[in-house]
Amino acid sequence: MSVHPLLHLLRKDWHLVGVPVMAYAIAGAAAVILLGLQNQAAFYAGTVLLITVLVTLGVHPATATVVSERKDQTIAFTMSLPISAADYLRSKLAFNLLAYFVPWGVLLLATCALFAWQDNLPDGLIPLVLILFGALAMNAVLILSAALLTESMETTIATMAVCNLAFHGVLFGAANMSAIGPTLHAPHPVWSPAVFAFLGTYALVIAASLALVTWRHARKTDFL
């Protein structure tokens, strides 16, 4: 099929959340700058802001481009295009994953580079940074999956609440693990098996979530 109808969908979604996504990316960059200031209050503020940005970035596009499309009854525009249910799913996955993972990847690289180059920040924190960024990425995919599977604002919000609670559990648990906690102030990253266990779990959950969404939508013959 022609690529143009899918481009219409991508442009529509960008029109809905493109400006907020760019604003979140700018706020994330400001958070990384705060992390680099040799000030404890600035470091704390940067940490809170960075987490808030990545949480919001994982929620806003999914709710605006998937759930609100049903709620606001703008699905009629999509149904008027010569596309299949599979094409619709591909466009939603492509847009939302790019909208999240492009800023996420840039902020992850910037944060890791900051810890690697700043003498006042221990490199031992880099594995924890990866664990926390990975948890937030997994949460974003789970929220998007809930939105695509249920198209329900209530279920999506409930998923968001559970994911945010789980994130704080990961933060506390990882920082206090015997294999990770004592290494956080090390002058170099310590890549213990526990770190790879966290990252491997995230990868499996993300893959399973996307596979479930794809399988579920493969059984649909229309958008309703």
From TrEMBL:
Keywords: Membrane, Transmembrane, Transmembrane helix
Protein name per its UniProtKB record: Uncharacterized protein
Lineage: superkingdom: Bacteria
Lineage start: Bacteria, Pseudomonadati, Pseudomonadota, Betaproteobacteria, Burkholderiales
Annotated TM spans: 14-35, 97-118, 124-149, 156-175, 195-215
